[in-house]
Design brief:
Shape: globular
Number of strands: 7
Order of helices and strands: EHHEEEEEEH
Helix content: 10-25%
Strand content: 25-35%
Number of helices: 3
Largest sheet: 5 strands, antiparallel
Structural class: alpha+beta
Radius of gyration: 16 Å
């Protein structure tokens, strides 16, 4: 069954010198940083940043991260991080594709899952806060699911 994509977002970056190894290839651990930058850009666009999450009493830790490296990203390469929100009501699940802007070829595929945790009690929330759902649903690119 095909996953429903609630919304998409993309961010463009240039691979920096401090992210590559001696062969000018991006070190594998730095790909996570680019996913985080793209996710923060998305959160800024929906006006629901980590600062607001904290003000509302929630932390949103990553509980799962998956990466599949297809081709290496290289120093000064222009890349695009395409982000797709595939779950937002029980958790925040995002799938990512990092692509080379010039050729359109996929470099890396990834996914993250975050959950809302109440800061006062440390308890994981079984549903995301209603304010979060409203922010996602108000995003211009939001597409509701046709499933009940």
């Amino acid at each position: 069954m095909k996953k429903h994509i609630y919304c998409r977002h993309c961010s463009d970056y240039e691979v920096q010198f401090f992210d590559v190894d001696s062969m000018d290839i991006m070190w594998h651990g730095h790909y996570v940083k680019y996913l985080e930058m793209a996710r923060c850009a998305f959160l800024t666009d929906i006006n629901y940043t980590y600062d607001l999450m904290r003000e509302q009493g929630y932390a949103w830790p990553i509980v799962q991260l998956n990466l599949k490296y297809v081709k290496p990203a290289r120093f000064r390469q222009k890349i695009r991080v395409n982000l797709a929100v595939v779950e937002y009501q029980s958790c925040l699940r995002i799938e990512y594709d990092i692509i080379d802007i010039a050729s359109g070829s996929r470099l890396t595929k990834g996914a993250t899952t975050q959950v809302a945790v109440a800061l006062d009690s440390g308890e994981m929330q079984l549903q995301t806060p209603r304010s979060w759902c409203k922010a996602v649903e108000a995003y211009a690119g939001f597409t509701p699911s046709d499933l009940p």
